[in-house]
Amino acid sequence: MKNWLKILAILLLFYVHIAGMLADVPRLNILNETIRALYFHVPMWFGMVLLFLVSIVYALLYLRTPSTRYDHMSVEFANMGLVFGILGMLTGMIWANYAWGSPWHGDPKQNGAAIALLVYLAYFVLRGSVENQEQKARLSAVYNIFAFAAMIPLIFIIPRMTSSMHPGSGGNPGFNMYDLDSRMRLIFYPAIVGWFLIGYWIVSLRVRLRTIEEKLIDLEHEKK
Amino acid sequence: MLLKLIQKEFTLELRRKAVISGIGLYLLSLIFICYLTFSLGRNNISQSTWSALFWLAILFSVINSVAKSFIGERRGLSIYYYSVASPQAIILSKIIYNAILCLLLSFVGYLLFSIFIDNPIQDFPLFMLTLLLTSCGFSASLTLISAIASKASNSSILMAVLSFPIIIAVLLMAIRVTKNVLDGIDREASMDELLNLFAINCILGALAYILFPYIWRS
């Protein structure tokens, strides 16, 4: 990954953390100061969906032309997406603890997100139970695509159909949540970019690690 | 070709009666246990309990029955089928067969439930439509998952693990509509969920149709 992207990611996140804590935020009922969690919780979900999206693109590419590189990319992006999802869940629970009173409320968005995480955990279980490399890659690519299509209704559509405690439901979804103040936007958008870049960085490192491991194993086999 | 394959599935099933009898027994025993538990307590079960029990029974019998569609098949037989028919025909025939099977199962389950336990359903045609849509949804997703799981080692566990999250979307819609039907709410209120179910079915069916050829190549 290009060096300037890495530096940009670090700078952005420093900015987000410092400005997120120190800058002014609009005061809304119930939320008060906890609205700062917006800079950490929501980018996790955006990052997760983006990472899963890239993972599925690589899965599709793999099905068209089977090459181990596509498979590695697909797995590592799914891995990172899962990590982001878990982090998003945790940050959401911390936020919920302060805003709603308890970490788990049975809110539809929370449930939908939990199930989406289950989908990808199942993905890794599938990968673990197939021996043959090529079959593993193929089966997991198919499941990736299938499960992604099944996950989209859960995360995006169903919570919008019901009233939930999440800010912005039962009305406009997404950005126009809290009359998103331009002050908040200044920190929010860089946060999304910064977190995604960090995710991408980790993925590129892990893919390099995998490729090198594979080469090592191949070399050892050749020696014998 | 498609019709012949569907016919073949039905003939095989009627010959061996393995799946039908096993699942039928499972369903019957589950419902009977519920009946015993609740009548011994001499109290009427609430509507939400009815709904939960019903969908639990249906869900587990459906997963067990559809799992057998790919997992039990012997290798030689599979190779023969794949040389004779196109993969699209195979997956479509299995999906249609499983959808009919699931519909039958849910209907029988519903009958047994209404015999042994209460029957609080107020809007019958709407409920039938829900059962139809859910059966198709279950069948489309579970058939593909069964195909994936059959290639891996511990198939039955994997089947359950893989299928559960995907089923949830379909199940959630079905439970919502069931709740509306139990409450006797106007039909208009459930239209959203039914449309949603239909849309999910289309997506899952189309995906299964497109993705299956990549799985059977081995």
Output the CATH class name of chain A: Mainly Alpha
Multimeric organization? heterodimer
- Stretches of chain A where pLDDT is under 50 for at least 5 consecutive residues are 169-176
* Named CATH architecture of chain A: Up-down Bundle
Q: What is the C-alpha radius of gyration of chain B, as a whole number of Å? A: 18 Å
What structural class do the secondary elements of chain A suggest? mainly alpha
Order of helices and strands of chain A: HHHHHH
Description:
The complex is a heterodimer of chains A (224) and B (218). In chain A, 38% of the residues are buried. Mean pLDDT of chain A is 80; it is low at 169-176. Chain A has helices at residues 3-22, 38-64, 68-99, 108-128, 133-161, 182-223. Chain A is built from six helices and no strands. Chain A starts with a helix and ends with a helix. Chain A has a single domain (3-223), classed as Four Helix Bundle (Hemerythrin (Met), subunit A). Chain A has 224 residues and is mainly α. Helices cover 76% and strands 0% of the residues of chain A. The longest helix of chain A is centred in the C-terminal third of the chain and has 42 residues, at 182-223. Chain B is an all-alpha fold and 218 residues long. Chain B has one domain (2-216). Chain B is 85% helix and 0% strand. Chain B has eight helices and no strands. In chain B, helix 3 (47-71) packs parallel to helix 6, helix 6 packs antiparallel against helix 7 and helix 6 (124-150) runs parallel beside helix 8 (191-216). Chain B is globular. The chains are: A mainly alpha (224), B mainly alpha (218). The interface between A and B is medium-sized, with 28 and 31 residues.
Question: In summary, what is this structure?
Answer:
The complex is a heterodimer of chains A (224) and B (218). By secondary structure, chain A is mainly alpha-helical. Chain A has 6 helices and no strands.
